[in-house]
Amino acid sequence: MLRGRIIKGVGGFYYIDTENGLYECKARGIFRKEKITPLVGDTVEIQVIDEETKKGVIERIFDRKSELIRPSISNVDTAVIIFAAKDPDPSFSLLDRFIVLAEKENLEIIICINKIDSDDTGAFLQVKKTYESCGYPIIAISTFTGEGLGELREAIEGKTVVFSGPSGVGKSSILNALDSNLQLKTGDISKKLGRGKHTTRHAELLRLDENTTVADTPGFSSLTVNHIAEKELKDYFVEFTKYEEDCRFFTDCIHESEPGCAVKKAVENGEISLRRYDSYIQLINEIRDSTRRYK
Ligand code: GDP
Ligand code: ZN
């Protein structure tokens, strides 16, 4: 038995990265009977059938730590949410949306601001001011000057990560800068994935080094928050949580118009960013509109 990780799946074949190289495997019939589908990202045990042609069979799938849906990929630890200091300018409301989606999937979040070389409006500091107080690490980088790349590498060392962010912020450039062996063409990732379009492409894992892995997908297939329940959304604005116990209605408070809301009070006295709170209200309304429409 050989242990490895599924890095790609195409038409019933799975490609397993192991210490002895890459194997093409089918899954044992028992998985189909039990309605278990192997996922990219799974740690598996394979039986080698032919060493020459590197073929084998997946015998065992280890428990998943996590599972992203559309694209289906398991055991992702971290979302690196990438925005640019300029071209395109950072959008706070879009950033909050990415954060909510990553929080919903229970991923660790790292915020990364690329193109720091052309930050002439203090965009990075603005992002830092707002999101540092939420507890997120924020890294400034430039694929042009190399600034911050070491720090980013260190932050993702040993993890499986997705690089998320709007198109044009430099996701492919960053992957290339982290590992010249990846040879992704700039602009490729976003082009291949399209934007909000349905693509039949499957996720694939790319090895950055011994134990650091990057998924070649943005992690979230769409930026809608409509699958999140109205009452649940506040949990993904993590800086609200510590105030919630002081709300008159505790965890029942959705921090909107209830009396005695400690979160609203914290917004009023500047402890919680008004911009973040406005994002929250906007997303709550979006969720409400969508449930109304489908009733
Ligand atoms: P993606 O759509 O997120 O994959 O972005 P790309 O990697 O294709 O980059 C989009 C554009 O941003 C390209 O024209 C890159 O040359 C440019 N770019 C990437 N990194 C940097 C950077 O650090 N500084 C500046 N000024 N431009 C960058
Ligand atoms: Zn409240």
Automatic annotation (TrEMBL):
Gene Ontology terms for molecular function: GTP binding; GTPase activity; metal ion binding; rRNA binding
Residue ranges occupied by any EngC GTPase domain in the UniProt entry: 74-221
Domain CP-type G residue range list: 65-223
GO BP annotations listed: ribosomal small subunit biogenesis
This protein's GO CC annotations: cytoplasm
Cofactor note: Binds 1 zinc ion per subunit.
Residues at which Zn(2+) binds: C247, C253, H255, C261
CDD domains named in the record: S1_YloQ_GTPase (cd04466), YjeQ_EngC (cd01854)
Principal subcellular localisation of the protein: cytoplasm
Localization in the cell: Cytoplasm
InterPro entries in UniProt: G_CP_dom, NA-bd_OB-fold, P-loop_NTPase, Ribosome_biogen_GTPase_RsgA, RsgA_GTPase_dom, RsgA_N
Transmembrane residue ranges: none
Cofactor(s) this protein requires: Zn(2+)
This enzyme's EC code(s): 3.6.1.-
Residues bound to GTP: N114, K115, I116, D117, G165, P166, S167, G168, V169, G170, K171, S172, S173
Pfam families on file: RsgA_GTPase, RsgA_N
NCBIfam families (alphabetical): ribosome small subunit-dependent GTPase A (TIGR00157)
Stated role: One of several proteins that assist in the late maturation steps of the functional core of the 30S ribosomal subunit. Helps release RbfA from mature subunits. May play a role in the assembly of ribosomal proteins into the subunit. Circularly permuted GTPase that catalyzes slow GTP hydrolysis, GTPase activity is stimulated by the 30S ribosomal subunit.
SUBUNIT field: Monomer. Associates with 30S ribosomal subunit, binds 16S rRNA.
Name used for this protein in its record: Small ribosomal subunit biogenesis GTPase RsgA
Organism: Peptoclostridium acidaminophilum DSM 3953
